[in-house]
Amino acid sequence: MTVAAPVALGEIVGADEVLDTPALVVDRAILERNIAEMAAFARSAGVTLRPHIKTHKTPEIMRLQLAAGAVGATCAKIGEAEVMVAAGGATDILLAYPTVGEPKIRRLLALMERARVTVALDSREAAGALSRAMAAAGRTLEVYVEVNTGQDRAGARVGDEAAALARDLARLPGLRVTGLMTHEGQANAAAPDDIEGIALAAGRALVETAHRLRAEGLAIAHVSVGSTPAAAYTPTVPGVTEMRPGTYVFNDVAGFRYGKLGPDRCALRVAATVVSRPAADRAVLDAGAKALALDKSLAHPGHGWIVGHERAEIARLSEEHGVVVLPEEERDAFRVGDRIEIVPNHVCVAVNLADELLIVDGGRVAETWAIAARGRVR
Amino acid sequence: MTVAAPVALGEIVGADEVLDTPALVVDRAILERNIAEMAAFARSAGVTLRPHIKTHKTPEIMRLQLAAGAVGATCAKIGEAEVMVAAGGATDILLAYPTVGEPKIRRLLALMERARVTVALDSREAAGALSRAMAAAGRTLEVYVEVNTGQDRAGARVGDEAAALARDLARLPGLRVTGLMTHEGQANAAAPDDIEGIALAAGRALVETAHRLRAEGLAIAHVSVGSTPAAAYTPTVPGVTEMRPGTYVFNDVAGFRYGKLGPDRCALRVAATVVSRPAADRAVLDAGAKALALDKSLAHPGHGWIVGHERAEIARLSEEHGVVVLPEEERDAFRVGDRIEIVPNHVCVAVNLADELLIVDGGRVAETWAIAARGRVR
To answer: Rounded to 5 degrees, what angle do the CA atoms A118, A124, A130 make?
Structure first.
């Protein structure tokens, strides 16, 4: 696995006037390449691209995705959608998460005044409350039925159960069922050699359920699939119409296990400083769980990939301390004050812990972008 | 273990106009009791109380701690201290973390214009840079030497190594070594029956090093210890002068394993809503890793303690989904739209993910407090 080139921070070490740590630095060239390649893939697969903004939470990056051909944005929470519409100018939003509770229904109605909104639902209870609210407001809400193709998180089970739910929801006033969606996250947990087969099976089962509903007269226009690791496979299934990858804009250590993407395709790095060398085999970084989060990866030991020092393991995190265990040959490389770059294990959650992205272009911090939808959990 | 009474959210269920979820709700009565009892304990032990604000990050709560007798605040990062001085009016800050790098040294000098600041250091490198900056600015910085009493994170090893570091730092212009500090976090990882012995041993070793340095003429006025789990023990060691607990204001599931504190002493709960019931034995909550964080606890399986439903296990978290596995007797209790309360495994990191605390008093949300130092990792 090759080390990133260009290394975002490598170019700007010493730029103390702009680079206090820990900080999230983004290599603009890698970011733009990642966005362009996924857009090209979607075109080649004949599906629309509706990226999940959870990875970046940043209006500027959503606009790059739209400019590259994305049809709209996928958000989890209404708060994310509110930011993407207000700050990012998005006009077509999929809320890939059930809207439950009066406060959120009120906000959904307000959001619908400003953008086209589709909501994913997987229960008659949530759909019933939305139906009553839409009918009372004289509105019609487009709905994707969320389908469980094997992840066993949310969603009605693909096949009979999902078809029955879709039929019931299609009968409710104020709702119009226009699609089926799945998040085939079970592929991410599988052995690398198994991911293609699992992703294809998930896509085929979803398409089959859509065909069955169409035969009954339901206008299922959209068959939508998610997950960056499975992105190369599920969208190629005939009948899938839309893909919703998120992580691909930045990539992270979790993706290394598939053998296709290494650190050179990871656009975001956590810049950190060595703040302590309490023992010959131990360094402490100023990036702890409040910068990297605790997510582990099957691809690499420890809590992140230190660019250029991959045998130095971030063995433990507390809130503000990243404890690095140093092999013999790395003991001179981590001096107090040294700057390092870490590719996070799970980039989405690292982004959610920060307030801004430093955009590096030509070896300089060219711009600072606010992570405007950070923490929008409601 | 008894279930919390009063249950913060139990009183305000249905108050949809104020309570969208996920949200952090704080029972003011429990909070005030926790603050008062720790202040009383510090007085009885004859030590000063300098609470770590990392748990709450909220100026209003720091002010309650100061009003109850705390001598000042402990912060990890300068960004936290900046907030506590500007928004909270703190006048005496311990930065229990090494200050490394020019940007932080500049901010430290600015902070010293507004408050008394002591910095913990564990390296000659960090101390040298600070010494040069202080001498150039004509200032003197008070320093605690950070000592490793067994946690093996940061800090010079207690005894010879710490004494040698203290001697060297005391010779540097612009610095005045006034204390030794340790974070006896190794106690938290120990078996509950072992915590007292480990904490006492850590305190005694630290006091012994302080005595040795005093015999050489160093004016070691402060011997400072940390950690809420060890708080009942380490401060009782003769010669310890200061304690820095943090978690005690809220408490969390991690503390249950010591058998002294249960959910009735947990002031903060994550209010969540059931958003999906995809299977008879599975419910999905709108609180995932972006609300609860991934920290596990040795005290309870899963990702938090559901108040009143402790046998329902939050088995898996993704960013926005908390997947609850329901035992037979809980299957009717988790309906779509139901509100529940979760005591987080590790409350400090849950607070760091949110923007505000809803303060519940007499069954109503009485105030909203901004978590003003959230995310201040620099």
So the answer is: 45
Q: Do β-strands B364-370 and B305-306 pair in parallel, antiparallel, or remain unpaired? A: unpaired
Residues B233 and B289 in one domain: no
In a domain, A2, yes or no: no
Contact A153 B321 (CB under 8 A): yes
CB contacts, 8 Å: A110 with chain B: none
How many Å lie between the alpha carbon of B229 and the closest alpha carbon of chain A? 16
Q: Do A156 and B278 touch (CB under 8 A)?
A: yes
C-beta atoms of B125 and A335 within 8 A: yes
Q: Do A377 and B76 touch (CB under 8 A)?
A: no
Closest C-alpha among B177, B171, B225 to residue B201: B225
Pairwise CA distance, residues B276 & B315, whole Å: 15
- What residues of B are in contact with residue A336 (Cβ under 8 Å)? 98, 100, 123, 125-126
Nearest residue in A to B295, CA atom: A294
Within a domain: residue B288?
yes
User: Could you tell me if A66 and A105 lie in one domain?
Assistant: yes
CB A200 within 8 A of CB A220: no
**What are the E-state strand segments in B72-188?**
73-75, 92-95, 116-121, 141-148, 156-157, 175-182
In a domain, A291, yes or no: yes
Substitution target from B24, B95, B123 for chain A, most A beta carbons within 10 A: B123
My answer on whether B19 and B35 are in the same domain is: no
Q: Contact B337/A16, CB-based, under 8 Å?
A: no
Asked if residue A157 is part of any domain, the answer here is yes
> Residue B123 and residue A321: Cβ atoms within 8 Å?
no
ipTM of the prediction: 0.95
Same domain? A100 vs A84: yes
Q: Which residues pair with A324 in a beta bridge?
A: A283, A314
Q: What's the structural domain count of chain B?
A: 2
Contact status, residue A294 vs residue B295, Cβ threshold 8 Å: yes
Mean per-residue pLDDT pooled into runs of 10, chain B (378 residues): 42 57 96 98 98 98 98 98 95 98 96 98 98 98 98 98 98 98 92 95 98 98 95 97 98 92 95 97 98 95 96 98 98 95 98 97 91 98
Q: Do B298 and B193 sit in the same domain of this protein?
A: no
Tell me the nearest-neighbour CA distance from A338 into chain B, angstroms. 9
Given B187, B222, B250, the domain boundary residue is B250
pTM of the full predicted structure? 0.96
Q: Within B9-100, where are the H helices?
A: 28-45, 59-67, 78-86
Give the domain range for residue A278: 9-26+259-370
- A46 lies in the same domain as A22: no
